[in-house]
Amino acid sequence: SSASSGDIQQALRRAVQAQESWRDTTTERRVNILYAAASIMRTRRNELAAWEILECGKPWREADADLAEAIDFLEYYATSWRTLASPKRLGQEPGELNQRLYSPRGVTAVIAPWNFPLAIPTGMVSAALVTGNPVIFKPSERSPMMGHWLTEILQEAGVPEGVFSCVQGGPDVGQALVCHPDIATIAFTGSKDVGLGILKDAGTLRPGQRMVKRVLAEMGGKNAIIVDDTADLDDAIVGVVSSFTGYAGQKCSACSRAIVHAAIYESFQARLKEAVLSLRIGNPEEPETQVGPVIDRRAQSKIQEYIEIGKKEARLLVEGAVTGPGWYVGPTVFADVAPTHRIAQEEIFGPILAVMKASSYQDALTLANSTPYALTGGVYSRSPAHLELARQRFDVGNLYLNRPITGALVGRQPFGGHRLSGVGAKAG
Ligand code: NAD
For ligand 1, is residue 144 a contact (CB within 6 Å)? Predict the structure, then answer.
């Protein structure tokens, strides 16, 4: 269940040996391997989704969506690389030929989270592979089976020996990869604290190292949805509830703050409470379940600590009841939350929502931008001027207008944030 340091050394040695031949493999071959992997995933779609329900507690619809996203990533990066692979001539100066071309950097460490246990690793791994980089992949210790299936599928699709290895394990395995002198690029998705630690560790030169390590770090969020006084409340309630309770709030894109105009503050709360109480919480193996458990006991305890903090800082509006065994946390909403409160600033990664009152639309935008994160955000409004102002001032990586703020689609809504939410390129 966990790679030893000998396993990691061996995987790296093989990756370094495979580097040149993989670089020289034709674009067509690398692209076709990704298409083949996509096709294997398609035929195993229900089985893999079932594994995800079992291992990560995802409700059916979301487990299937993760599968669909993984397939999209494979095809998206394959198709994109076809376009990017050919050198591009720059300028038309006679007697001169200038070309811009992309070449692989070297061995890439992919360090993945558990919350999209197939899609996120597939995206990071396939982008690195198709561009000619060998990959050492470390799945999250909380979703090792999904990491194993991705490995099996890529092998079956034809990724050569040594070019791709999976090393299972926790933070120590991740750290060993980050610090290894043969790693040229680190593609990381996970929490802010771990991401910042990786950026620091990657900046230390180790004996034998020949590259400045490049880190792509996609990190957390503290995402807000603004609901102004012109909003369609039916839509806004559905959007806020689905964005904060989807996969029990365990999405980096999840809504964790609802910033509501004073004029509709009371009616919004009353309707929100009813909507939360109507959610079906339970075993994700049952198809009707809307909110399943959180990932493990550690996550449950941490979220419960925040609920206690919230009870001291703000007013408890609703706490969803959960019965039976398992790591469940009922969707919980706090009202009258101030921007300085911890529950308004810190990523909780569970189904917890802070409702904040805004005196004006301008005030709502200021509140929305008042955390160091900048990942996703949303606005429900029927005012074209307000929507336009959000485009200009709402500082997030992905801004959604009059729709939920989770569920970005590959190729249509490239995903990723800035400020403390991440550095690097957008995914898909
Ligand atoms: P995490 O940071 O705890 O772990 C992520 C990965 O890093 C795991 O594989 C873990 O084993 C590894 N790791 C832990 N410590 C390490 C270290 N010191 N050195 C190297 N590797 C180490 O995050 P998580 O709990 O798996 O995932 C949830 C977090 O991920 C949330 O903060 C969420 O917002 C974020 N996330 C962000 C995005 C995005 O695209 N921005 C997407 C999904 C999740």
Answer: no
Distance 244 CA to ligand 1 centre (A): 19
Ligand 1 closest atom vs CA 194: 2
Question: Which H or E run includes 58?
Answer: none
Q: What is the Cα gyration radius of the chain?
A: 22
216 lines ligand 1 (CB under 6 A): no
Give the distance, in angstroms, between the CA of residue 396 and the centroid of all CA atoms in the same chain: 14
Query: How far, in Å, from the CA of 192 to the mean position of ligand 1?
Result: 8
Q: Which of 8, 115, 183, 253 to mutate to test the pocket of ligand 1 (most atoms within 8 A of CB)?
A: 115
- Out of 66, 219, 347, 398, give the residue to mutate to test ligand 1, the one with the largest number of ligand atoms within 8 Å of its CB: 219
- The closest residue, in CA terms, to atom 28 on ligand 1 is 190
Give the residue, by CA position, lying nearest to ligand 1 atom 21: 174
Using CA positions, which residue lies closest to atom 26 of ligand 1? 113
**Distance of CA 140 from the midpoint of ligand 1 (Å):** 8
- Element of type H or E holding 217: strand 214-218
123 lines ligand 1 (CB under 6 A): no
Token pair listed for 208: 């034998």
Q: How far is CA 330 from CA 117, 197, 300, 319, 327, in A?
A: 23, 32, 10, 6, 10
Q: Determine the straight-line distance between the first and last CA of the chain, rounded to whole angstroms.
A: 30
Question: Would you say the CB of residue 347 lies under 6 angstroms from ligand 1?
Answer: yes
Instruction: Give the separation between CA 191 and CA 44, rounded to whole angstroms.
Output: 30
The residues that bridge with 88 in the sheet, in sequence order, are 100
Per-residue pLDDT of the chain (428 residues), as tens digits, is 899 999 999 999 999 999 999 999 999 999 999 999 999 999 999 999 999 999 999 999 999 999 999 999 999 999 999 999 999 999 999 999 999 999 999 999 999 999 999 999 999 999 999 999 999 999 999 999 999 999 999 999 999 999 999 999 999 999 999 999 999 999 999 999 999 999 999 999 999 999 999 999 999 999 999 999 999 999 999 999 999 999 999 999 999 999 999 999 999 999 999 999 999 999 999 999 999 999 999 999 999 999 999 999 999 999 988 877 899 999 999 999 999 999 999 999 999 999 999 999 999 999 999 999 999 999 999 999 999 999 999 999 999 999 999 999 999 999 999 999 999 889 99
Q: Which of 176, 151, 179 is nearest to 165 (CA)?
A: 151
